[in-house]
Amino acid sequence: QVQLVESGGGLVQAGGSLRLSCAASGRYAMGWFRQAPGREREFVAAIGGGDGSTYYSDSVKGRFTISRDNAKNTAYLQMNSLKPEDTAVYYCAAGSPRSGSFYYIDRGYDFWGQGTQVTVSS
After folding, report:
1. Between vectors from CA 49 to CA 11 and to CA 35, what angle results, nearest 5°?
2. Over the range 89-104, which residues count as b (16 or more CB within 10 Å of their CB) and which as e?
3. What is the pLDDT confidence band of residue 1, given thresholds at 50, 70 and 90?
4. 84 with 120: CB under 8 angstroms?
5. Which residues touch 53 (CB under 8 Å, ≥6 apart)?
6. Which of 7, 11, 88, 105 could hold 34 in an S-S bridge, CB 3.0 to 4.6 Å?
C-alpha cells in the first residue's frame, strides 16, 4: 500500500503564494486535485513519473507549477497569485496513468492522500 503524506496547506490572502508537498512511499506519476464545498473534485496538475511531463488545468496554468524530487519521491505544487476561487481541499494522488488523458481524471490514479485545506481570503 502506497502512503501519501501531504503538507503545506493554510490560509493566505489573495495574490499570495503557498507550496504544497506530497511525499510518496515509491516512485509514481503524481497529481493534484481539489474539491471545493458543494463542488465535484477537479484536476489541478500532474507530473509524470518517468520523463517528468507536466499537465495543468486551464484554471491554474501560468499560476501553479508542479515539480518533483525523485530522490525524495516527493511532488510539489507551487501556487502563486492565489485567488479566492482556489479555496478547496487539495488532494495528492499517485499512480500509473495509462496515457496522457488519464493524467486529468481520478481513474488515472490508484492512491490518494488525506487532503489539505487551502483557503484564500479576499
Report:
1. 30
2. bbbbbbbebeeeebbb
3. confident
4. yes
5. 47, 100
6. 88
Q: Sign of the CA dihedral 75, 94, 26, 4?
A: positive
Between CA 55 and CA 109 the distance in angstroms is: 14
- Report pLDDT digits (tens) over 33-82: 999 999 999 999 999 988 889 999 999 999 999 999 999 999 999 999 99
**Average model confidence (pLDDT) for the chain?**
95
Q: By percentage, how much of the chain surpasses pLDDT 70?
A: 100
60: number of Cβ within 10 Å: 22
For the record, the C-alpha cell of 43 comes out as 484536476
